[in-house]
Each structure stands twice: as C-alpha cells, then as structure tokens.
Design brief:
There is one protein chain. With 255 residues, this protein is mainly β. It has one helix spanning 3-31, and strands spanning 35-43, 46-52, 66-70, 76-81, 91-96, 99-104, 107-111, 117-123, 125-126, 134-138, 141-145, 151-157, 159-160, 168-172, 175-179, 185-191, 193-194, 202-206, 209-213, 219-225, 227-228, 235-240, 243-248, 253-254. Strands 1-2-3-4 form a four-stranded antiparallel beta sheet, with no helix packed on it. It has a four-stranded antiparallel beta sheet with strand order 5-6-7-8, with no helix packed on it. A hairpin with a 5-residue loop joins β19 (209-213) and β20.
C-alpha cells in the first residue's frame, strides 16, 4: 500500500473520530437542558403550556412536572406543580378547553389548573376536547359532553370518533354514519365503514364494496369498487374488476 493511500485512510478515520466526538459533546449538552414540551392552547388571551423540568432531556419516559399559564406578554400568571398530583392520579393528560384530563380508579374526569374537579371521574374513557366537546364512554356507550360536564349528545353509540369540522363518525347497530354537534344524523348509519370527508367526499363501504358520498349523505360516486382510498388533491385511487386507476371527484377516470 502506498504512503499516499495510507495517509488518506488515516485522515478519513480521524475525520470520523472528530464527528463522533462532536456528536457525543452535543448529547452531553442536551442532557443538561431543560425543555418546553409543547404549547397546548390559547384561550381568553392566555397561553397554557406544559413544561418538562426534568434535568435529563433524554429520559426515555419524560414526565410532565409543571403546568404554567402564560400571558401574551410572556408573563407567567401561575405555576402548578404536578408532582403532587402524580400520587393521586393514574394518568394526567394535557390541557384542552382549559381542563386537564385525569384518571383515578380506572375512571376518567377533568380538573382545572388548581386541581379542582370540574367534571367527575366517572367515565370509562374520555378523549381530549375537540371543537368544544369531549368524546366519553360510559356504561359501554359513547357520547359527548361540554367543558361544564353537561351531556350534549347522549351516550347511545357503540363507537364514535371526536368531532372534526363539525362532524363525528358514529357506529350504532354495527353500522357507521355521521352526526353533527346537535346529535342529528347527517349520514344515517348504514355502512360497514366510513371515513372523514376529504375534498367534500367520504369513502364508505357497503356490501364489501366501496364508493363515495357527499356531505348531504348522497352516494355521488357509486359503491362499486373492490378497493378504494380517500380523496387527496382531487384524486382517489380505486380498484375495479382487478384494475387499479385514479378517479376525480366526479367519478371519472383521471391521469
């Protein structure tokens, strides 16, 4: 091996060594860093943030230690130490609609930033608020409550999903449909499966075939496809008679 080639190899190995040393240095610095996990929500001109103050940034199971209410001018209004809460609750969630979801004795409810119980811990499952309503499960049925704990949509469904753009997908008697925030059916439960609307259309399954309905519940693209995907950017991939191709929102084959 020539001296020139040997020198090149040594230089490459030395460069790799320097890069590894630098990465190790960064890891040490990060391990000393305290971090903000996330800004959760803005409400009444206040920002609520969860602060992780663990000294070890690389903790495999990072815990949330403090809740801070921060005003738009960066002034900290109050700080709640959540460490004491951990002795009382199995789970402590993030803040939504000004409330924090907690779990105790395998039941869920909501408390405020002072720890005061606002919504009783009585639910088998409670989902963070979405569009002002929390999806809850009680007595093996799903419904919705508001941030005062009032039942807005009775728990009568076998399954449901949180509201998205004013609509929730629900399952009753083993059929899927959709409701609005008044609990009225926008799409009567009749499908084996149903997805949220995309490009104004929802992918549905009926009699083991797929098609698309509009926001009025009308089947605007026939339920005839062996396989199908939701629309994205005006196109959807479908399969008919063993052939895969794309269609537009009018059901016409497209490039």
């Amino acid at each position: 091996m020539s001296n020139k080639r040997l020198v090149s190899i040594v230089l490459v190995l030395f460069s790799i060594f320097l890069v590894l040393c630098y990465l190790f240095y960064l890891q040490i610095q990060l391990s000393k860093t305290k971090s903000i996990v996330s800004i959760i929500e803005e409400e009444n001109n206040q920002y609520s943030s969860i602060i992780n103050i663990n000294d070890n940034f690389n903790h495999q199971e990072s815990s949330i230690d403090k809740l801070q209410i921060i005003k738009p001018n960066d002034e900290i209004q109050n700080t709640t130490d959540l460490n004491s809460w951990k002795e009382n609750y199995q789970e402590i969630g993030l803040i939504s609609n000004g409330l924090i979801k907690v779990k105790k004795n395998n039941l869920y409810g909501f408390v405020n930033s002072d720890g005061s119980e606002i919504i009783p811990l009585q639910y088998q499952i409670a989902i963070d608020f979405s569009e002002g309503l929390s999806l809850i499960k009680i007595n093996n049925k799903w419904g919705f409550i508001n941030s005062q704990g009032e039942t807005k949509i009775k728990p009568i469904f076998d399954h449901a999903f949180p509201f998205f753009k004013g609509l929730s997908l629900i399952k009753i008697n083993n059929k899927w449909g959709a409701i609005n925030k008044d609990g009225k059916f926008i799409v009567e439960p009749q499908y084996q499966s149903m997805e949220y609307f995309s490009d104004g259309l929802s992918l549905v399954k009926k009699n083991n075939l797929y098609g698309y309905i509009d926001e009025g519940g009308r089947e605007v693209i026939p339920v005839i496809y062996e396989q199908a995907q939701s629309f994205a950017n005006g196109q959807a991939l479908v399969k008919l008679k063993g052939r895969n191709f794309k269609i537009d929102i009018f059901g016409q084959e497209s490039d």
